[in-house]
Amino acid sequence: MEVTYSLEHDDFLTQQLYRITRDRNLQAKRQKQWILLPIVCIIIGVYFYLTDLILMALAMAFYMVLTLLFYKKYFDYKYKNHFQKHIQKTQGQRTGKKLSVEFGHKFILTKDETGESKIKSDQIDYIADLPEHFLVYLQIGEVMIMPKNQFDAEALKNTFEKLGYAIIDESNWKWGQNKYL
User: Fold this and answer.
1) pLDDT (tens digit, 9 = 90+) per residue, 121-140?
2) Domain 2-12+94-169 belongs to what topology?
3) Calpha distance 133→15 (Å, rounded)
4) pLDDT for 5-63, tens place per residue?
5) Structural contact between residues 2 and 152, judged by C-beta atoms closer than 8 angstroms
6) Distance between CA atoms of residues 25 and 81, nearest Å
7) Distance between CA atoms of residues 3 and 92, nearest Å
8) I need a surface site. Which of 36, 58, 113, 129 has the fewest CB within 10 A?
């Protein structure tokens, strides 16, 4: 099956945001920071309290509550903003350009204005089925982003299944509202 589509800024952003929700190191870092910041606030607040700086101790308590409540939202905002800037710098020339991908039994053929490539079908690691995209992960670490709104997504999913690719159902994934981070 052959599909033709173009990628936009949001397509690249979705791929990057999905990738970091699956990064175990980043998950551990975020969890550690979320726990460590309130502990530091408590220690500093106790110090201020013991030195009769009650107003500063209350300020630290207030900051601790804010950290506990809003750190995850801040983290989501920070990373989304970072990737938006990164994509504008690095992928700006690729947006809006037509490309086509043909999935066959032995090979995947990709074509765009720069040329063509041929990838062995057994090089597909897995396919993440997101609400608005297919992300085709290759064993070499590359990812093909395929926005579902530009082709018949059900027909392509059926092709993936017929070709025996591993499909991970992530139809409930959404940035900022996921259980991973």
Assistant:
1) 999 999 999 999 999 999 99
2) PH-domain like (2.30.29)
3) 9
4) 999 999 999 999 999 888 888 888 888 888 898 899 899 999 999 998 999 999 999 99
5) no
6) 20
7) 22
8) 113
CA pair distance 105, 139, nearest whole angstrom? 17
**Any idea of the CA torsion for 42, 43, 45, 51, to the nearest 10 degrees?**
160
Q: The tokens of 114 are what? A: 């720069």
Measured distance CA(51)–CA(31) in Å, rounded: 31
* Torsion angle of the four alpha carbons 132, 138, 144, 150, in this order, in degrees rounded to the nearest 10: -50
* CA dihedral (58, 63, 67, 73) positive or negative: positive
Tokens 């408590």 identify what position? 42
Model confidence, pTM: 0.81
Nearest to 158 by CA among 135, 131, 125, 129: 129
Can you tell me the distance from the alpha carbon of 117 to that of 38, in angstroms, rounded to the nearest whole number? 51
